[in-house]
Amino acid sequence: MAYLSKDLSVLAYANGFTLWHYTTPDTASVVDATGYFNPAASMLRVGDILVANVETAGAMKAGLFLVSANANGIVDVNDLTQIGSADSR
Fold first, then answer.
1. What long-range pairs does 66-72 form, CB within 8 A, spacing at least 24?
2. Which domain of life, per UniProt (predicted)?
């Protein structure tokens, strides 16, 4: 799939920092590819964090993406830092 603006929402904003939520059936590796968030370049700033639910159509994962670059309309986020990667009980 591709980035969908309807799936990106603001959770909190303070002091030039925005905490976002994004949900998608895409895998984390697709989402963290340079350019995935280019359509949102005017909103995302370096240092913003996205709380994300990925692979929502399958074995859903959750985690955090850090916006690491945004220049000339090209956005890049770091690899997903996964939350709750195992359930041993």
1. 67/37, 69/34, 70/41, 70/44, 70/45, 70/46
2. Bacteria
Phi and psi based region of residue 73 (left: phi greater than 0; alpha: psi -120 to 50; beta: remaining): left
Amino acid at position 17, single letter? F
Give 32's contacts (C-beta < 8 A, 6+ positions apart): 65, 76, 77, 78, 79, 80
| Residue range 39-89, pLDDT digits in tens | 999 999 999 999 999 999 988 999 999 999 999 999 999 999 999 877 777
pLDDT digits (tens, 9 = 90+) for 11-49: 999 999 999 999 999 999 999 999 999 999 999 999 999
